[in-house]
From TrEMBL:
Entry cofactors: Zn(2+)
Listed name of the protein: 6-pyruvoyl tetrahydrobiopterin synthase
GO CC list: mitochondrion
Family note: Belongs to the PTPS family.
Amino acid sequence: MSPRSARLARLSRSVTFSACHRLHSKSLSDEENMKLFGKCNNPNGHGHNYKVVVTVRGEIDPVSGMVMNLTDLKEYMQAAIMEPLDHKNLDKDVPYFSEVVSTTENVAVFIWDNLQKLLPQGILYKVEVHETEQNVVVYKGEETIVK
């Protein structure tokens, strides 16, 4: 029997959570916020049923046949996504968003950062946040674009 080279695979799992928010930047006037964010700047906020797809990648373990145990991934996603975000007012209930505008882009960064604290180092590949069926943000941990 010849040794097989390691195989790399990606594994994804999704969850759905409900939350409300208001798109509003403290750096802008009320008029500028209304112009930029429109109806999403409603003082009473608005809600979404967000779908989040988390993808990890790694070598397929030759013993277990897995990149990662799905039960473990489910628990990490519960702690990093569902507990802090589900049925919350993002702007009022999640301290991170007291200073950061609760756009879907920033929700993706928040989820990435939370997962990074829990998952084995280097395994997190991608976080996709579906705000609606038409609006999707993909974040892969990039911090800035060099110009």
